[in-house]
C-alpha cells in the first residue's frame, strides 16, 4: 500500500528527548516499511525514518531556539503539502488531532485519524459532530468515553520496536523510578510521598514545560530537595533501558484520564513492573499481578512495593513482546488500512484490531 503518515511538528520523529505521539509515528512508519509498504512521512527535517521523508519544517518546534514561531502556520503549510500530494496515497494517516478535518472532507473515507490525547474537553463534541465521516482510532477503550458517538473504527494500542530497549543485566535494583513530565496530573508529589514511605530512593527523569514551571518551583522543588530523591531531568531513548531496567518498579501515579501511558510499556520492555494508580487506560495496559499492580491508594501502593519480588521480570518482557511490539501495532493498522481502502487480502485474513 501507499501510506502517508502525517506527524505533529512539535517534536522530532522520533523525539530526541520527551515525546509520545511523534515516537509512535516513527515506530509505526518504520514497521510498515519493514512489512514491504511504500510509506511517506510528513514531519520535521531531523526525522530518523525508513520511510520517504517530506520535510515540513527545518526543526521540530519545541526545541527550536527561535523565540518567535507559529505552530499553526507550520501545520497549515504541512496540510497544504499533504493535500497537494493526496492522489499519491491509498491512505492518509493523521496524528494531528482534528486539525485536518476542514480540508480533507472530500476523501474522509480514505483517511485514518489516531487520537493521541484526552477527549474530555469542552469544544470537542461539537467538532466531532460537525465532521462525522472521518474514521477514528482510539489508543484505549477508555479514551473514547467522552465521545461515544464518534466514528470509531478500531482501538489500537501503542507499540515499540522489541530491540529498542533490552532488559539490562541483573543488579540490586534499589530505587523506584518516575519517568515523563512534571505536572499536577502526573502526580510526581505522590511518587515522592510513596518512595519516602517505602524507604526507597526515587529517581525522577522528567521534563518541565513552561506551563508547569510554577508548579515545579512551588510544589515539587521543595520535595526533591531531600535525601533519596534524585531529579535528573529529561532523558533520551538511549538512557531509558538502564534507567528503567535497573529500577525496582516504575511509579505511574496519575490523577487524570490518561489515554494510554507510553511509559508503562517502555518499562515492560525493560522487564520492569509498573505500579500505577487506577485511572484512564491503566487497567487496559497493566495486567494486575503479572506486569505490575493497579492501585487506588497509597496504602495499596505500599503493599504493591512489598510484593514486587513476586513478579517475573522475564515474563513481563514476554508480555511486552506479545502485546506491545511495533510489529503488532503495524499489523493492526495495516488491517484497518486495507479494510478502508477496499484492499482486503483473502489469503491473509484481517487481524483483530481491537485492543487486547
UniProtKB/TrEMBL annotation:
It comes from the Bacteria. InterPro entries: Glyco_trans_1 (IPR001296), Glyco_trans_4-like_N (IPR028098). Residues 168-307 form the Glycosyl transferase family domain. Keywords: Transferase. One of its GO terms (molecular function) is glycosyltransferase activity. The keyword Manganese does not apply. Residues 18-133 form the Glycosyltransferase subfamily 4-like N-terminal domain. SUPFAM superfamilies: UDP-Glycosyltransferase/glycogen phosphorylase (SSF53756). The keyword Isomerase does not apply. Gene3D superfamilies: Glycogen Phosphorylase B (3.40.50.2000). PANTHER family: BLL5217 PROTEIN, GLYCOSYLTRANSFERASE. This is Glycosyltransferase family 4 protein.
